[in-house]
Structure formats: structure tokens, C-alpha cells
Amino acid sequence: MFVLVFLVVPTLTVVLGAFQDEDGALTLGNLDALTGDAAVSALKGSLILSASTAVIGAVLGALLAYLIVSMPAHSLPRRATLAVSGVLAQFGGVVLAFAWIATIGPVGVVTNAVMELTGVDLYGSGWLFGLPGLVVVYSYFQIPLMVIVFAPAFEGLRPQWREAAVNLGASTWAYWRHVAIPLLTPAFLGALLLLFANAFAAYATAAVLVSQGQPIVPLLIRQAITSEVLLGQANVGYALALEMIVVVTMVMVAYNLLLRRTSRWMR
Amino acid sequence: MNTRKMLVSLTATATLMSVAACAAPEEENDTTTESGVDAAAATSAEDFGGMDELVRAAQDEGELNVIALPPDWANYGEVISTFEEKYDIEVNSAQPDAASQDEINAANELAGTDRAPDVFDLGQSVALANTDMFAPYQVETWDDIPDEFKDADGAWVNDYGGYMSIGYDSAVVPEVTSLSDLLGPEFEGKVALNGDPTQAGAAFSGVMMAAIANGGSADDIAPGVDFFTELKEAGNFLTVDPDSTTIEQGTTPVVIDWDYLGAAAAANVDTWRTVVPEEAVVAGYYFQAINADAPNPAAARLWQEFLYSDEGQNLWLEGGARPVRGDAMAEAGTIDAELWGALPEVSGDPVVPTDEQTVTAGEYLAANWSKAIR
User: Which end of chain B has the lower number of beta carbons within 10 A, N or C?
Assistant: First the structure.
């Protein structure tokens, strides 16, 4: 029942809407609109944003996860980092956007401090309110999310394996090269995909930060629904949503394949 | 297999049901007043038997739903509170920051409920695309309103207008007299446009102003887009949506917007100046209409009477907007002369894009705007 109400019906509504015009007649015109310049560049923006923050988040998050996992299980820094990550991974939306504006916005605390101390203008010509700004702000929740999902993979590396490798004469590098990294790769790639999907679907943070040009798909959908200049675009919004569903489905299928592989390794 | 079949049929049923739920209910509200007048069909105060009867009918309803009226926009905050006090009617103001299209969406979604908006305040293209949703009504001051500012039957009436302007904080940036000033290095990361022009009417007019300043016309908005491309390349264009808060914070020291919104900003920032560039005067009026499905039809009509009364018009003027009856009131001496004289000086013929020009320009913007300011 839950699946029906919260997944199947909305998905069907989107799919049906994508193939209808304003009067409810069937049409392919909405999908046509997806090949327009604005839609293509928004999709490109979304992919760049999701991919870059997924890579940044995955690499930095994996390093952080490694550091805390190598600490004793009950040490304070380890527990604190995990707890903070749990909070920050969910710290998105309007609050996050305002936090950044207050910090490095045009009259932000850090901007003003750096300006006074060094004369460097951090804010420049407003990069925070465009795609580069989104990359920085999204990384803020991507890195902690990576810590949470990737730390268990490190914990799954049994010390016995390392001991076995050392007994067989392996150096630390050889152990990582031939045992640990191959074991961790599927989990890492899986987490990378999860991060990608997470950034791809995020909306509220971007909605507050960026109001011009709609550089990513969720913002273009907002325009299709609320524009008072271009009327009758609601069904184009459905088509854009369908496009997002297709991308996320591909990511999730890849994620599931990887997960299957990981579980085989970890059995 | 059976579970799957069941799921499919369940899905189908649910979809059908949700479609059915979207259709407007057939049942009509009972809108007849105690004195036997059908308020929803009344086209003037006369139909109620005079203003007093209209007031009584509206007070029986006791409530008025308005939507998308920001308190700092054309003095709406005071307009609403004055109306509430004067007639003892509660005004429910929903989503003050919503856009015109949101008003129509809300009216469709809430149709038949008592939360549906009673009246609309719309941008031109949205208003003209939805005239079948409006109830015709002629206010008592109808004859004062110039013909080009009203629908012959009273389905819609222009309410207030203004000129596209450049507002700036004179404590932060040098004096601005024309659009080309904004390309200078002193304006790095400082110039904001009120909204995305593919989305908001005010921003659309801002690009139109830039077009006219740079050799374009109401038929050719391309030079306006080129101007903003240049502004972006100079590093001056700020992609923040400005409002009175960002102006007070200092996030948006230069704002391209309607002159009456500049007036609202000036209320809190002493150094705020508003200038209508001489070379590009673009005017725009908003549209006022009554929802044909208004849950409070009498209150909706009283609201119109109030807005177009001398009192209502002067309240808009206080917000820096040009009320549509302004000229007639100036002649009759009922206008607040001091405020009327204090409106920004405007020279030259103002350009008011027609609906057709707006559609054409909108299509150009849809295809080119996101490229321009990337």
C-alpha cells in the first residue's frame, strides 16, 4: 500500500503527464522540449554537479572514514565524527543555503574577515550563487554521507586478512594493492553512485541559492510549473521529471549490481 | 503472478481515482445573500441594492482569501490591514511570495473549498490567458478608469502600475543614471534582477528595459539579453533573487525592479535611490480580477470597491505605485498631491509591451536566457 501511494501513483502521474499536452491529449511534444538548449544545459549542469560532488564527497569521505576507523572503537573522536556526520549528512535545504550565505556571501562573516585581514575578496563576482557555489555547498552534506555509508566497509576488512597477508610476506603496500583495495572497490563505487543520486535529486538548497538561468534540472522544473512569462509548461515539467527518473533508475540499477558483487565478497 | 495482477489493477484504480479527484466538483456553492441577491452573479454594487447592502453581505461572509500579496509590494500590507479594520472582515493572506501562475494553480486546486482565493492580482500574460476564470464586475468608480486599462465587461481591471527602474544603495556604489553605468568595475558582483525573466514578470520587464536602452524594441528583446551577457561577463551580474531583506542586508546593492518596489526598499535603507533610466522607459500594470468560483463572492466585490476607492488608490500611491485612477483623481483633487508629485520623474514615451510581444519575447528568453547568463 505504501509502495502504491508513495511510489507507484506519483511515478505513473509523471509518466502520463509527460506524454500529454495541456488539454490531456497524447503528444510527444514535451519530450521534444527536452532537446532544447535550456533543458540540455540543465541536464548537463545537473550531471556535472552530481558527478563532481559525488567524487569530492567519496574521496574526502573515504579518507575521513579510514582515519576514524583506524582509531580504537570507543575513542571520543571516532564517536564524535560519526555522530556529527550523521547530523550533517541530513543538513540540507534552506538552512544550509543560509548558513553559507551568512559565511561566505557578499556580506558574510568570513568574507568580511578575510577582506579586512588580507584584502582578498572571497566573494568575487558572486560565484556562490551559481554552479560553482552549488558544488561547494553540496559537498558539505556529501562528505559526511560518505563517512556514514563507507565506514562499515572499512570495518568489514578483517584484521586476520592483513595478518594472513603479512605472514605470506606481503608489504603494507602489497596488502592494500592486492587485498584491501579490490575488496573495497565495489563498496566505494556503490557509495559513489548513492552520492550521485543524492545530489541529483536535491532541490531546496539550490532553490534558495540560485534564481537565475536554472542551471540544474530541479530548478528548470520549478520554472516550468510557476513561470508567469512562459505559460502552459506544466507538462514539460512532467517530462523533465521523467528524465530525472530515467537517470536515477540507471544509477540505482548500477548500484544494485554493485551491491550484489559486494555482498558476494563479504560473505 | 497473481500479486502482480492485483498490483496493476490497484494502480489503475488509484490512478483513475486521483484523476477523478482532480476534476472540479459539480456542486455549486450557495452564494445567495440574506436579501436574496446572488452575490456570485452580481456585476456591480447596484445588484446588491447599493454599497450598504454589499457591505452587509460581505460582513455576513466575514472573510476574504487573498494570495500572493507581499506586504512590502505596493503597500499591500497596509491595504490589507486598512480593509480589515474598516469593514471588520478577516483577510486570509496565503503565500505572500507566490507568483501569478501560483495564484491560478491555487484557484484550480482549491476550487470548491472555502480556502480558494477570492481575488487575483496578476501579471499581464497570466491574466489574459485565464479570463474565463474571472467574474465580471464594475466598481462604482468604473468611469474614472481609462478604457485601455480595463476589460469592457469588467472581467479584469488594471490596478496599479509603475516603471522599470534601477534601485541602488548610494552608500555602496556611485550614482547611476543609465543602464550602461552598471557595466563599470565598481559594480562587480552587485547587480541583481528581481527574479528570472523566464519566470517572473518584473524581471522580464527588466530585460525589456535593457533591450530598449540598447537599440532593441518591444518586438526585439535580444539586445536586452546581450546586455545581461555583457554584465555577466564583466562579473557584475548577481544571480540572487532580491527582496527587501537582501537589500537591507546589503547582499544586493543594485536592483533592477519596478520603481514602487524601490520605494518600499527605501523605507528601510536611507541611502537607497531609485532611477528610471531616461533612455528606456518601460511601464507595466498589474491586473485585478475576481475569482468566478470565489468562496466569498460579496467580500471579493467589496475588496474591489475598496481598492478602486480614493482611499484604496491613495494607499497604493503610498507604496510608490501609480494607481490606475491617478489622473482622474488628480483632476478631482482627491489624490494625495504630495505623494503623486514625488513619484520618480519620467521623460519620454513609456513602452508597454502587448500580450503578443510578451509571448514572442518570452519564447526568445526561454531559448536564450540560460545561455546568456551562464
Answer: N
